[in-house]
Design goal:
The structure is a single chain. This protein is of the alpha/beta class and 342 residues long. It has 13 helices and 13 strands. The strands form three sheets. Strands 3-2-1-4-5-12-13 form a seven-stranded mixed sheet, with helices on both faces. Helix 8 links the parallel strand 7 (189-191) and strand 8 (217-221). Helix 6 (140-161) packs across helix 7. The longest helix has 22 residues, at 140-161. The chain starts with a strand and ends in a 5-residue tail after the last helix. It binds 6-O-phosphono-beta-D-fructofuranose. It catalyses: beta-D-fructose 6-phosphate + diphosphate = beta-D-fructose 1,6-bisphosphate + phosphate + H(+). It comes from Streptomyces cellulosae. Pathway: Carbohydrate degradation; glycolysis; D-glyceraldehyde 3-phosphate and glycerone phosphate from D-glucose: step 3/4. The record marks 104 as: Important for catalytic activity and substrate specificity. Homodimer or homotetramer.
């Protein structure tokens, strides 16, 4: 059997660990051959391939990014996309495709597998941890560790200068990174996309923190919105996935805090640093296990399924179930951390 592998969407620490797990087990235990498709769905669309064998995966476990490259290409939005993919898979003699990606990439896999006879197995990937049907996605732990270290470092400048330091982390639709890193880093305010925030309330927390002779750290997810701030924070344009482009909630918030409290405020936007570099031990462990279980699903002919973490077990769930809706932060969980605000 010849198996195709692709990685789509934003890069994520642990992608190479998944690829290594798939290839090592597939070659050694099942005698499969592999072909790597370059740059996400662009690979099978344009028949753009790369050699994928044991030597190709040697030494990649601790490496960030993806040896296969990635893109946000969506073949369902291209004329003849499905036909071209089917033709190219046939030309490559690929009998199964392992798709490693987030909501968009896996959404394509669900459509192709369920409605067009393309046998896909999914592996959930995103630093945002917002994919349903799995307790965790790999990449999230690394991103949280990077953000937590940054917040730890921001505390010293905040205290030395008695400033407000606003730290903007990733998370367009879900506040998992903000919630986990904010709690781990001892933030005084955490703002997430799931709960619109009141700027006056944020300023009250900031002021009360100063009154206790401490300098406040505000962690804000890039998708967090003030109650009446749509006009300020959305520039109206959309990316190719229909996501509204955000324009710097962190910067905006620091200015508002300065204006309303008279305290000096600065912003740090962590951006792609959160996705870069070597994966944490947990992410290597999770990604490797996902890879091993994905190739088992191929062996079992269990297509249209995604591997997922439930507790400590890896299970299989329909890809369509995982992509049907995003997993957002439960309001009760958010309320729980509220005790530290102010
Ligand atoms: O989905 C992962 C993610 O890193 C989000 O947290 C972020 O909003 C988005 O991707 C950024 O995408 P890009 O790198 O394409 O700007």
């Amino acid at each position: 059997m010849r198996v195709g592998v692709l990685t789509g969407g934003g890069d994520c620490p642990g992608l190479n660990a998944v690829i290594r797990g798939i290839v090592r087990k597939g070659v050694q235990e099942y005698g499969y051959g592999f072909v790597g498709f370059r740059d996400g769905w662009r690979g099978p669309l344009e028949n753009y391939t790369v050699r994928l064998d044991i030597p190709a995966v040697r030494g990649i476990l601790p490496r960030g990014g993806t040896i296969l490259g990635s893109s946000r290409t969506n073949p369902l939005k291209q004329e003849d996309g499905i036909r071209r993919i089917k033709e190219n898979l046939a030309e490559q003699e690929v009998e199964a495709l392992i798709v490693i990606g987030g909501e968009d990439t896996l959404g394509v896999a669900a459509e192709l597998s369920d409605h067009h006879g393309v046998p896909c197995v999914g592996v959930p990937k995103t630093i945002d941890n917002d994919l349903s049907a799995t307790d965790y996605t790999f990449g999230f732990d690394t991103a949280v560790n990077i953000a937590t270290e940054a917040i730890d470092r921001l505390h010293t400048t905040a205290e030395s200068h008695m400033r407000v330091l606003v730290c903007e982390v990733m998370g367009r639709h879900a506040g998992w990174i903000a919630l986990h890193s904010g709690l781990a880093g001892g933030a005084n305010v955490i703002l997430i996309p799931e709960q619109r925030f009141d700027v006056e309330q944020v300023c009250a927390w900031v002021t009360s923190r100063f009154r206790a002779s401490y300098a406040p750290i505000v962690v804000v997810a890039e998708g967090a919105m003030p109650k009446d701030g749509d006009v300020v924070l959305k520039d109206g344009s959309q990316d190719s996935f229909g996501h509204v482009r955000l324009s710097g909630v962190g910067e905006w918030l620091a200015k508002e805090i300065e204006r309303r409290t008279g305290k000096e405020a600065r912003t740090t936007v962590l951006g792609h640093v959160q996705r870069g570099g070597t994966p944490s031990a947990f992410d290597r462990w999770l990604a490797t296990r996902f890879g091993l279980h994905a190739i088992d699903a191929v062996r079992d002919g269990d297509f249209g399924q995604m591997v997922a973490l439930r507790g400590t077990d890896i299970v299989r769930v329909p890809i369509a179930e995982a992509t049907a809706r995003l997993k957002t932060v439960d309001p009760r969980l958010y309320e729980e951390v509220g005790v530290f605000f102010g």
